[in-house]
Amino acid sequence: MLRTPLTLLTDVFMPSLRVLAAKRLRELGMSQTRIASLVGVSQPAVRQYLDEDEEKVIERLINLGLAKEEVNELVDQVTQLLSSEDVEAVMSFVTTRGLKLLSDLRFCQFHRSLDQEVPPTCSICSSLYIESEEELMRQALAMIQDEDVSELIPQVMSNMAFAKWGAKGPNDVIAVPGRITKVHGVPRPASRPEWGASAHLAKILLRVMESRHGLRAVMNLKYDDSVERALLKLGLPYVKVRGESGDDDVVAREIAEAMTGEAQVALHLGGRWLEPATYVFGRDPLEVAKRVLGLAREYVKLRSKRSQASK
C-alpha cells in the first residue's frame, strides 16, 4: 500500500521540528522537564532529542523539501509559540504550516523517492490547505506575547489586522476588539479577533493594499528614535511620514502614498491629536509577528546599551 502524503508530516516533518525546538529551548536555559511538558513528550524522549545531531535533523527537513532558511524560521516560530504556552496555537501552527507545504507540492520529490508508484503527475495535496484568517491571527497573537514586545506597546495600545484576499471594506479585515494591551508585562489581546474590529487599521491596510496587494497584515506600535535605529540595524526597509492631522482617512492616505518600493514599515510622525506610531506590514500575521519580534529584540538591546552608557 502506498505511503500517504500525510505520513510525511507525522513521520518526518513534526518529529524533526520537535527535536530542533527542544534543542532551541534548551539553549534558552529551559530544563528538560519543562521542555518535555511543552513539547508533549517524556523527559527521556527530550534527552534523546538533545543527543541527536542537529545538522542531520536539519538535513532531513531540507531533503523533505525545505530551504535551510525556512527550517530556521520554522524553529524560531515554533519555539516562540511553545514559550507562550498556548498549546492550541502550537498545534494549529504546526498542522496548518505542514498542510500548506503539502498543498504547495513541496514534498512531492521526497514522497516519490519513498514510493516509486506515486504517479509523476500526482497533485492530490494541492487542495489540502485552505487559509483560515482566524487561525493565522490566533497563532500570530500567541507569538507576540513576549516581554520584549511589551516595550513597543504604545499608551493607546496596539492592534493587529489581517485582510481577506480582495478585501473591499472594514468588515473584510479581522482585528482584536479592545486592542492589545500589557498584562503583567506581556502583550495580551483583549479578546478573540473579530471581523470589522479596527476601523483605524482597516482603513490603512485597505489603502496600502490598493498598490501593494501582497501586504495584507499590519500591527501598530509606538515610535521613538530607538525604533528607527533598530529598523536600520535590522535592515528592514521603512518610510517616514510627516502627518497633517489625526483624521483616519488622512493618515491612511499619507501612509499608502509613502509605502512604495520595498518598504515594509511606516513611521508616522503624528499629527493633530495623533501621537507618532510605527506600522509594521507583512503578507500575513505570522510575517508581521516575526518582524515585530525582531524589532523588539533589537529595540531592547539598543535601549539597554543607551542606559548603560548614561551611567
From TrEMBL:
InterPro entries in the cross-refs: Aldolase_II/adducin_N_sf (IPR036409), ThiN (IPR019293)
Q: Identify the residues that the record assigns to the Thiamine-phosphate synthase ThiN domain, covering every copy.
A: 137-292
Q: Which Gene3D superfamilies has this protein been placed in?
A: Class II aldolase/adducin N-terminal domain (3.40.225.10)
Entries under Pfam families matching the protein:
ThiN
Q: What PANTHER family does its record include?
A: TRANSCRIPTIONAL REGULATOR (PTHR40730:SF4), TRANSCRIPTIONAL REGULATOR PROTEIN-LIKE PROTEIN (PTHR40730)
Q: What is this protein called?
A: Transcriptional regulator
Organism, as annotated: Sulfodiicoccus acidiphilus
Taxonomic classification, please?
A: Archaea, Thermoproteota, Thermoprotei, Sulfolobales, Sulfolobaceae
